[in-house]
Amino acid sequence: MAQYDVVIIGGGPGGYNAAIRAGQLGLKTAIVEGRGKLGGTCLNVGCMPSKALLHASEMYDLAANGEFAKLGIEVKPTLNLPQMMAQKSESVEALTKGVEFLMKKNKVDYVKGWGRIAGPGKVVVKAEDGSEATLETRNIVIATGSEPTPLPGVSVDNVRIVDSTGALSLPEVPKTMIIVGAGVIGLELGSVWRRLGAEVTVVEYLDRICPGMDDETAKVFQRSLTKQGFKFQLGAKVTGAKASATGAELTFEPVAGGEPQTLSADYVLVAIGRRPYTEGLGLDTVGVVPDKRGVIANNHYKTGAEGVWVIGDVTSGPMLAHKAEDEGVACIELIAGKAGHVNYDIIPGVIYTKPEVATVGKTEEELKAAGIAYKVGKFPFTANSRAKINHENEGQVKVLADAKTDRILGVHAVGPSVGDMIAEYCVAMEFGGSSEDVARTCHPHPTRSEAMRQAAMGVEGWIMQA
Ligand code: FAD
Ligand code: NAI
Question: Looking at the structure, do residues 51 and 89 belong to the same domain, yes or no?
Answer without folding.
Answer: yes
